[in-house]
Specification:
86 residues
């Protein structure tokens, strides 16, 4: 049984060589990857710009009150309906 220590496999290409091989010619996978990276970056910028902190520190409401305001349907008054027909 012989063990070979010098494997004659070609060396792995460097990052620069892989990027150079990826750049020429339009490929669908490259275009999708670029669009996804740009989209993710824009979404993170929007999140940090608008949704990380409240506008003022005193503007906080209990979560139950927020949920009630978002999920409840305002009741319509019967006296308000069909006034245009009179």
């Amino acid at each position: 049984m012989t063990i070979t220590l010098n494997d004659r496999s070609p060396p792995r290409p460097t990052l620069r060589a892989r990027l150079a091989g990826w750049m020429p010619g339009p490929t669908f996978a490259r275009d999708i990857a670029i669009v996804l990276v740009v989209k993710f970056a824009l979404l993170m910028m929007i999140k940090y710009a608008f949704f990380n902190h409240p506008m003022a520190e005193n503007m906080s409401m209990p979560p139950a009150l927020v949920a009630q305001a978002l999920l409840s349907v305002p009741a319509s008054h019967p006296s308000q309906g069909d006034q245009h027909a009179r």
